[in-house]
């Protein structure tokens, strides 16, 4: 790991830590195996679990695994499995150090260890934060993408799965063959009905295995998949965060997590083998998770997508930069109130205005500086979750949601610009698993209408049902044309005038 002259974590203990630092170090044994060791996990599930274990005990240490990269795992291993969550807002800065991990490993070479850990009878929860893209959902079948190279590989190589679903199934297979004890699979990603969805994908994988009766029965009878809504804005780690920790604590953290103060977790209480006392440290257990999920996926995430693409095209590097452009703020209010809010029922405990005002505050966090390129990445797997049902909802009464159409057009302008159009550096920095395919389609024509038609008809990003909504598809094409020839502000003003 990076060598450094400043002291490392072991030098820090309760008496040396500054007052504003919360050191949550306990030494439980492993009870949770987590797949997807990114910043989101480290600032959310790990945070709640560290507090719950410190205050209420239990063997809920987290054995964590990153599917591809070894960077975070190596950084954490080199610093006693500790790291800082730096909570940053314009009015405060605080540091929390959640000492709850029992291992941090990364990369396909180590997947055997993860399977062995899942198989242990001491493992009670398998949790996941692998992003929308990590579930390998096919939009054409609305199920597991059996053509994905990872799934093809995983069906053929039981000992070395590479996909999250493959790892879960192979781990469950070992449990079924060994002791058959119950376990919970807990998805913490932004998918609508994330638990139900994960269960569906797990069963589709199982059904493709030869001789799967025993495993099917085990999963049916002893494995639960609670739905959950998980919320905290967590940007990527930058050097300025490393410097901030160093100047505050005098220690060098190779991998701190910047985060907003706000955090929310709503979970269904369906745990097959127990769980940490999360309800005592702020998590909400509810039978109404679906309402919270829809609220968050549409109001926060859906609008976040609009902010990222309009913002990037307007030359804004950050979400607050975008949010403070008057015409983008106007677009945000319209999409929230006119296009997303009518499509679901708010959870009984919250009011729309209260939640939306809080969103504006969260998007205004200029010092956290969440980037448009982070939020805009992976649009091909995020947008279908966020916009499909709202578009269909409006189409049923003969309407086309203008700002949702503009969001899709702006995404295409950012990810696969047509010849002669340059979307700017922030759009350039967006990654997307469908990027190379979209760029290929964009290279076949200079006509935005032809390009947009081909995306909906052939790219298998959006469902056939959405692609069949001609008015919507044409509206997207019209906005792409306007973005290219007149600019994003003009396109947003048009959308406003039609709303
Ligand atoms: C964002 C989310 O990446 C995105 O598209 O909308 O990561 C968002 O920051 C989180 O869901 C907040 O909980």
UniProtKB/TrEMBL annotation:
Sequence ranges assigned to domain Mannitol dehydrogenase N-terminal in this UniProt record: 31-280
* A GO term for molecular function: oxidoreductase activity, acting on the CH-OH group of donors, NAD or NADP as acceptor
Q: Does the keyword Cytoplasm apply?
A: no
The record, for PROSITE patterns, names:
MANNITOL_DHGENASE
Q: Does the keyword Ribosomal protein apply?
A: no
Indicate the segments forming the Mannitol dehydrogenase C-terminal domain, all copies: 288-483
What's one GO BP annotation on this UniProt entry?
mannitol metabolic process
Short name of one Pfam family: Mannitol_dh
Identify the keywords attached in UniProt to this record, alphabetized.
NAD, Oxidoreductase
Its recorded name reads Unannotated protein
Origin species? freshwater metagenome
- InterPro entries documented for this protein: 6-PGluconate_DH-like_C_sf, 6PGD_dom2, Mannitol_DH, Mannitol_DH/Oxidoreductase, Mannitol_DH_C, Mannitol_DH_CS, Mannitol_DH_N, NAD(P)-bd_dom_sf
């Amino acid at each position: 790991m990076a060598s450094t002259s400043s002291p490392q974590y072991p030098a820090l203990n309760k008496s040396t830590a500054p007052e504003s630092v919360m050191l949550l170090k306990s030494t439980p044994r492993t009870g949770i195996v987590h797949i997807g060791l990114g910043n989101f996990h480290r600032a959310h599930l790990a945070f709640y679990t560290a507090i719950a274990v410190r205050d209420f005990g239990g063997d809920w240490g987290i054995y964590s695994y990153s599917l591809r990269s070894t960077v975070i795992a190596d950084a954490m291993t080199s610093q006693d499995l500790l790291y800082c969550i730096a909570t940053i807002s314009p009015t405060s800065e605080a540091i929390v150090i959640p000492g709850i991990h029992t291992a941090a490993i990364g990369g396909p070479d180590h997947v055997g260890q993860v399977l062995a850990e899942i198989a242990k009878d001491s493992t009670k929860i398998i949790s996941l934060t692998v992003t929308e893209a990590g579930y390998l959902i096919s939009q054409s079948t609305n199920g597991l993408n059996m053509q994905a190279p990872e799934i093809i590989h995983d069906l053929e190589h039981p000992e070395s799965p590479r996909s999250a679903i493959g790892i879960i199934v192979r781990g469950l297979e070992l449990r079924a063959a060994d002791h058959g004890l119950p376990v919970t699979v807990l998805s913490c990603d932004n998918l609508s009905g994330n638990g139900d969805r994960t269960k569906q994908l797990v069963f589709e994988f199982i059904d493709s295995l030869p001789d799967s009766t025993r495993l099917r029965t085990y999963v049916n009878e002893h494995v639960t998949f609670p739905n959950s809504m998980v919320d905290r804005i967590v940007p990527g780690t930058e050097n300025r965060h490393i410097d901030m920790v160093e100047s505050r604590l005098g220690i060098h953290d190779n991998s701190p997590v910047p985060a907003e103060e706000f955090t929310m977790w709503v979970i269904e209480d369906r745990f097959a083998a127990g769980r940490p006392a999360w309800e005592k440290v702020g998590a909400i257990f509810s039978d109404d998770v679906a309402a919270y999920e829809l609220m968050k996926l549409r109001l926060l995430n859906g609008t976040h997508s609009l902010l990222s693409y309009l913002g990037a095209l307007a030359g804004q590097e950050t979400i607050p930069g975008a949010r403070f452009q008057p015409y983008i703020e106007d677009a945000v209010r319209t999409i929230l109130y006119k296009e997303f809010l009518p499509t679901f029922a708010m959870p009984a405990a919250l009011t729309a205005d209260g939640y939306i005002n809080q969103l504006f505050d969260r998007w205004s966090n200029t010092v956290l500086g969440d980037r448009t390129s982070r939020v805009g990445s992976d649009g091909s797997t995020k947008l279908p979750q966020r916009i499909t049902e709202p578009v269909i909802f409006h189409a049923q009464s003969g309407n086309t949601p203008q700002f949702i159409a503009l969001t899709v057009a702006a995404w295409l302008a950012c990810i696969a610009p047509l010849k002669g159009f340059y979307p700017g550096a922030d759009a350039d920095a967006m990654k997307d698993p469908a990027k190379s395919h979209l760029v290929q389609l964009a290279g076949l024509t200079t006509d935005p209408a032809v390009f947009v038609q081909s995306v909906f008809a052939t790219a298998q990003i959006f469902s056939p049902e959405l692609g069949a909504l001609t008015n919507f598809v044409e509206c997207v094409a019209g906005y792409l044309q306007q973005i290219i020839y007149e600019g994003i502000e003009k396109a947003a003003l048009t959308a406003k005038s039609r709303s």
